[in-house]
Amino acid sequence: MSEENRITKRERTRAQILRAAARLFAESGYSGVSMDGLGKACRLTKGALYDHFNGKDDVYTQCVAHYVEGAISDIFSQSLTGDDSSAEAKLFSFLENFLTRLQDDVVLRRLLQRLLIDAKGVDLAAVSEFALLRPFSYVVDLLSQYKPGINAKTHIYSFFSVAILGEDLRVIAELLSPEFKGIPATQAMLEHFRGVIR
Fold first, then answer.
1. Mind listing where the DNA-binding region sits, in residue ranges (predicted)?
2. Cβ neighbours for 2, distance < 8 A, ≥ 6 positions apart
3. C-alpha span between 64 and 72 (Å, rounded)
4. For 129-185, what is each residue's pLDDT tens digit?
């Protein structure tokens, strides 16, 4: 077998592990996944997993960073980013696409939720650097341009936190505030955010 075929097979196996790990960690959280369970889900031995990763922490960090980074890249590609668009248009285009992706992609939503609750003992700095810093900095910059003088970091952090939890809390929100019924979640979040930053 040539070196090129070995590398290709290795890359395919690694991608398979990352996909399976993302689903498992999204469903069960960091503490609910073992290397044995991941091996079974991938139909690989535990030794084969260690051939690709240094351990559970490494798998977790890399799978979350890989999955979130891929989703964020998709969101950027679907959003207005050109110089011919205003900061406001680019900001709300990105936020709308982010909310839509969270609504449609349960694995992404759960991985982000798990980061919020499972962060203890996990290399959160590595995940943040690889997957979260770029979109956070981007929207903070846009909000600062759109609304100079506003505490953009606090508002964007709050938005992302509510967005990540919001889809799953929608049922409770509709019970507490029946006026939310019938309003699409994305539209409601964007309207709320516009009101907050006024």
1. 34-53
2. none
3. 12
4. 767 888 999 999 999 999 999 999 999 999 998 898 877 777 777 777 777 677 777
The token pair at 123 is 């290399």
Give the model's pLDDT for residue 4. Answer: 54
Q: Which two tokens stand for residue 73?
A: 């890249």
Rg value, the chain, Cα: 19
| DSSP string computed for 80-130 | --STTS-HHHHHHHHHHHHHHHHHH-HHHHHHHHHHHHH-TTS-HHHHIII
**pLDDT band at 116, cuts 50/70/90?**
confident
For the chain, domains (ranges, CATH) are: 56-197 (1.10.357)
> How far is the C-alpha of 97 from the C-alpha of 133, rounded, in Å?
17
Nearest to 136 by CA among 190, 179, 98, 181: 98
Amino acid, single-letter form, for residue 32: G
* CA 177 centroid distance within chain: 27
Structure tokens at 14: 């690694």
